[in-house]
Design brief:
Elements lengths: L1 E4 L2 E7 L4 E5 L10 E5 L4 E7 L3 E11 L11 E12 L4 E11 L9 E12 L4 E13 L2 E4 L3 E4 L6 E13 L2
């Protein structure tokens, strides 16, 4: 969580391990109908903020996160960094950069890179609007993201790209 101190905020968060079994109801070739998965205690986040700026980063690593239907094992890792500068209570600029290798063992050439940047106007506590540029690139395969759907290429030597510019709004009520 956040700890307030003299107008400054510092954030540090480590997520507890996730462990369990995922089953699909049909036995696998090994006779088991479930696959062990574990992320372990390996998601860390660090951030700092003042009234003028916010900055943060996150690192993750996981075992068998997206591989629950086969006995094969896989690993994933990645990191993210973000920042925001508040020029005044109404205007700010922000940026974010993410990179991940979602399948290091089974698809070692698969890599995703995402970034965005924008400017935000805050009318009041309830309404804000942002003009944002987003870019997502996947090399060495396909990867499904929330913004772009499936991005990438089935050719290991090529890449798929997705980019957009948009106005995004938020209304808090």
């Amino acid at each position: 969580g956040y700890a307030e101190s003299g107008g400054n905020s510092a954030m540090r968060n480590t997520v507890s391990p996730l462990r369990g079994k995922v089953g699909v109801g049909e036995p696998s070739p090994t006779g088991s109908s479930s696959v062990e998965w574990s992320t372990g205690p390996r998601v860390s986040q660090l951030g700092y903020s003042t009234s003028f700026f916010k900055i943060g980063g996150q690192y993750f690593t996981a075992d068998n996160w997206n591989n629950t239907l086969t006995p094969a094992t896989d690993k994933a890792d990645g990191f993210s960094g973000w920042g925001q500068v508040n020029f005044n209570p109404e205007w700010s600029v922000f940026a974010r950069y993410d990179t991940a290798k979602p399948s290091k063992d089974l698809k070692p050439g698969l890599k995703e890179t995402y970034y965005n940047a924008g400017v935000q106007w805050t009318l009041n506590k309830a309404f804000a609007a942002s003009l944002v540029y987003k870019y997502d690139e996947v090399k060495g395969g396909t990867f499904t993201t929330g913004d772009a759907g499936a991005t990438g290429s089935v050719n290991a030597n090529s890449k798929g790209k997705f980019s957009e510019i948009g106005i995004y709004t938020v209304y808090n009520f």
